[in-house]
Amino acid sequence: MMYQVYSTETMVVEKKPAAKKMFIYALVLLTVVLGIGIGIAIGRLAICSHEKRELKPDGVLLPGISEALIKDGDPTIGDDLIQAIKSENIAEYLRNLTNEPHLAGTSADKRQAEELRDFWLHVGLDHVTITPYKVLLSYPNNTEPNFVQLLDNNQTILYNSPLNETIIRPEENKTDVVPPFNAYSAPGDEYVRITLVLFIVIYIHL
Ligand SMILES: *[C@@H]1O[C@H](CO)[C@@H](O)[C@H](O)[C@H]1NC(C)=O
Ligand SMILES: *[C@@H]1O[C@H](CO)[C@@H](O)[C@H](O)[C@H]1NC(C)=O
Ligand SMILES: *[C@@H]1O[C@H](CO)[C@@H](O)[C@H](O)[C@H]1NC(C)=O
Ligand SMILES: *[C@@H]1O[C@H](CO)[C@@H](O)[C@H](O)[C@H]1NC(C)=O
Ligand SMILES: *[C@@H]1O[C@H](CO)[C@@H](O)[C@H](O)[C@H]1NC(C)=O
Question: Fewer CB under 10 Å: which end of the chain, C or N?
């Protein structure tokens, strides 16, 4: 299928209502921004004058906001949390979570959800639920993978997108890694003519 690029006249006619709409959106946005700005300015001026003396150089300082509102009830809790966060732990969890391909809606994905639930229960959460939902996703067909081609006027292929992603590290070499695919469209073939780039045709196989 060939897609015709709109002529300039059509574009101009179509732009008029859109421009009007854009102007109204811009006006509404400006009003909202001005309103918030004035609100903050009044708030600052009203609170600042009484409480400037209370601000101490240590701890969190938010000029104009009462210190009582922002200070920790128990400062040791914050310290404990910060101490418990270790980059090695984050790396280990991320490695665990991304170790196996787990495309949404597959049994591997469900297995990972169950592992996560068990993990949260194991670390002490009282209640963890998994909420099932319909995954509206199309899946690649390994025998007929998606690809994008760049064709010239004579249908000669100038470029073909790779069918599989390159394996950069050995741990990426897994059997159920899906090939690159367009997840949000129905299967089919699409031709798009790029008029500005010397009549090159892009062929998309989905
Ligand atoms: C990830 O962690 C869960 C539970 O902590 C464990 O059951 C699972 O085997 C781990 N997966 C990998 C790939 O290490
Ligand atoms: C994958 O493509 C082949 C060839 O067109 C087709 O026979 C098969 O039914 C497709 N598989 C799926 C799951 O759509
Ligand atoms: C297409 O083919 C014709 C005739 O075979 C040739 O003259 C022309 O140069 C080709 N065009 C391109 C872009 O390769
Ligand atoms: C791409 O990967 C799939 C699944 O691992 C494999 O069956 C297929 O042969 C590979 N295709 C290419 C072109 O490497
Ligand atoms: C991936 O693993 C297969 C079998 O385990 C091996 O034959 C292949 O050479 C490996 N590919 C890469 C790029 O490491």
Answer: N
Considering the domain architecture, whether residues 101 and 126 belong to the same structural domain is answered as yes
Taking residues 133-160, report their average pLDDT: 88
188 and 206 Cβ atoms separated by less than 8 Å: yes
Residue 47 covered by a domain:
yes
**Residues 5-22: pLDDT tens digits?**
333 333 333 344 556 676
Instruction: Give residue 4's pLDDT.
Output: 35
Q: Which domain holds residue 104?
A: 80-137
In a shared domain, residues 148 and 165: yes
Helix (H) or strand (E) holding 108: helix 107-122
Q: Find the 172 Cα to ligand 5 centroid distance in Å.
A: 10
In eight-state DSSP terms, residue 34 is: H
Give residue 141 CA to ligand 2 midpoint distance, Å: 6
> CA–CA separation, 12 vs 10, rounded Å?
6
**Residue 159 C-alpha to ligand 3 middle, in angstroms?**
17
Tokens of residue 194, six digits:
């790029």
Identity of the residue numbered 149:
Q
* Pocket residue to mutate for ligand 4, from 142, 165, 167, most atoms within 8 A of Cβ: 142
